[in-house]
Here is the input.
Amino acid sequence: MLNFVICDDNLNILDKLEKMLETIFTKNNYNASVVFKSDNPDDILNYIDNNITDVLMLDINLKCNKSGLELAEEVRKRKKNSYIIFTTGHLEYAMVAYKYKTFDYIPKPITYDRLEDTVTRLFEDANELNKKYIKIDNKNTIVDEAEIQYIKRDGMKLIFHTSSRDYDTYSSFNKFQEKLPETYVRCHKSYIANLNQIKDVEPVSGTITFRDGNTCDIGPKYKKEFMEVLKDYGNFE
Here is the structure.
């Protein structure tokens, strides 16, 4: 799921943008949501400091203590990989805006078709295998691979567990094994663990503890190879 955050000093535009985005998400079956909106840049920064934020839509000409460009500079210090989309009626800012690794620049007044084109290209970009998102089903559900703690097989379903929520799809390990980065390792017949999310491993009991406190078992069949991978990875003895 992609979490969108919007900042604009015009409350009417904020509401309009949110409605347009939600319509686009529904129409195209995109797994996304507008999770926060504000006319205050400080509120935006406070939100992204404490929440997963994938896409930020920022008005450049904010009539407050920070411009959209200054806000983007602060965002980049906190979220290096989030998408930034600028909106503005001042075309002279366009070239400066791309300094902040901008995905797109939408002139105001924003039309539905122009916004839909940007969102469509963004999802296509996020779905590329060399990006940090994993597409888990045919409904355009995408999950940040860095946020996944482990993948669990539960009957005919796979459950992608993150610290914020679980995603499930009817599929098999084999379908996803080749898509996953090398930090994802099979540790049990029913689990694939993300090495970057492991907090502790207890070899005797065969238990993995993840950063969010959840645990899973290491299967006897996979234990030797899994422990060797952990050792080679360098994070564990």
